[in-house]
């Protein structure tokens, strides 16, 4: 018999991979398991009142502010988004404002959603201006001055919509929207005048309204409606769904209230299975819902006509320039 201490008893049943100590007690888990910790024991004196929803500010997105100066003048822009909700999160309000120059370049959004009932609904109103700057080749006017023309093209889109969603189950729902869109056009012509020695003479700034290149571009007023049957029981991995299936069946209708109308259908289905390639079927179609006469097509094809006029490198100024400032040493 070898000399030495007694042999230790065998380890108690348990996880042999657990690091010591074997008997662990977590104070954090104990506190989390006690739902009444820190609450008063006597609540008989508390007063009960019905819940009254009131909106409070949740957070503000990172605001922005920009200041600059160019040949078009001083620039000041910036914006921020504010999100509001009540204490239970059933009423949600989103507001956004962005300023990027003049009053015609202000973008804004107000949206509201109500999710307290099975029928979730909401509404939104927004204005988004799109500004394009198109410089032209310099030319000579009748007095021999060099003219550098530039056109500022603004397309402002204002929309109002009502949306809803009604779930049939955890994976299937019906959703849709009804909306109205107003699209307006504005042209601004800026011309800088220089003499042959590159001395600045004058600048003209003319607001052409909705007329450009001999054409008048009236505002478009469009109504639109859509409804979709949506199914989704997919499970997400790290970057994309890996299991389940999805499909969406959606007819859409657009109409301007007079002659122009179109319908669009969308059908898409995606099957996901582990170990196999994803199968995806998509179909989309567009069909005219009424006969459109040739004059109406010419009047409504605003974007194509505007694009042809803006990219015309040989287009001259629409208006006669204002009287120029004489060079001081011209005498």
How would you sum up this structure in a few lines?
The protein is mainly β. It has a 15-stranded antiparallel sheet that branches.
**Average pLDDT reading:** 77
Note the main sheet: 15 strands, antiparallel
How many strand segments? Answer: 17
Number of helices, where a helix is a run of at least 4 consecutive DSSP H or I residues: 3
* Low-pLDDT residue spans: 274-278, 286-300, 319-331
Characterize the overall form: elongated
Strand content: over 45%
In helices, the fraction of residues equals: under 10%
Radius of gyration: 33 Å
Label the structural class: mainly beta
- Separation, N- and C-terminal Cα atoms: 128 Å
Order of helices and strands: HEEEEEEEEEEEEEEEEEHH
Describe this structure in words.
This protein is mainly β and 331 residues long. It has a domain at 54-116. The protein has helices spanning 27-33, 294-300, 302-310; strands spanning 56-60, 64-70, 73-85, 91-100, 106-114, 120-135, 139-140, 146-167, 172-194, 200-209, 211-212, 215-216, 220-232, 235-236, 241-255, 261-272, 279-288. The strands form two sheets. The chain has a 15-stranded antiparallel sheet that branches. A two-stranded antiparallel ribbon has the order 11-12. The longest helix is centred in the C-terminal third of the chain and has 9 residues, at 302-310. It is elongated.
């Amino acid at each position: 018999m070898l000399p030495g201490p007694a042999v230790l008893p065998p380890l108690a049943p348990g996880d042999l991979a657990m690091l010591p100590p074997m008997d662990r007690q977590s104070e954090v888990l104990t506190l989390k398991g006690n739902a009444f910790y820190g609450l008063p024991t006597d609540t008989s004196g508390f007063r009960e009142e019905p819940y009254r929803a009131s909106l409070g500010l949740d957070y503000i997105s990172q605001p922005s502010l920009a200041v600059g100066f160019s040949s078009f003048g001083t620039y000041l822009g910036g914006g921020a988004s504010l999100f509001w909700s009540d204490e239970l999160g059933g009423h949600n309000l989103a507001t956004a404002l962005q300023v990027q120059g003049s009053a015609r370049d202000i973008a804004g959004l107000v949206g509201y959603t109500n999710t307290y009932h099975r029928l979730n609904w909401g509404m939104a109103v927004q204005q988004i201006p799109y500004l394009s700057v198109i410089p032209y080749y310099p030319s000579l006017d009748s007095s021999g001055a060099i003219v550098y023309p530039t056109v500022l093209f603004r397309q402002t889109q204002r929309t109002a919509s009502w949306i809803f969603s009604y779930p049939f189950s955890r994976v299937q729902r019906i959703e849709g929207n009804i909306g109205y869109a107003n699209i307006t056009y504005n042209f601004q012509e800026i011309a800088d005048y220089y003499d042959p020695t590159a001395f600045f003479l004058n600048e003209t700034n003319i607001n052409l309204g909705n007329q450009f290149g001999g054409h008048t571009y009236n505002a478009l007023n469009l109504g639109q409606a859509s409804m979709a049957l949506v199914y989704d029981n997919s499970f997400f991995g790290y970057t994309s769904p890996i299991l389940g299936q999805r499909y969406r069946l959606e007819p859409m209708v657009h109409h301007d209230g007079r002659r122009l109308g179109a319908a669009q259908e969308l059908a898409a289905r995606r099957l996901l299975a582990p170990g196999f390639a994803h199968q995806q079927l998509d179909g989309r179609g567009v069909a005219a819902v009424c006969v459109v006469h040739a004059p109406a097509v010419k009047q409504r094809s605003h974007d194509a006509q505007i694009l042809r006029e803006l990219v015309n490198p040989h287009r001259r100024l629409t208006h006669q320039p204002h009287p120029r400032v004489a060079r001081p040493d011209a005498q």
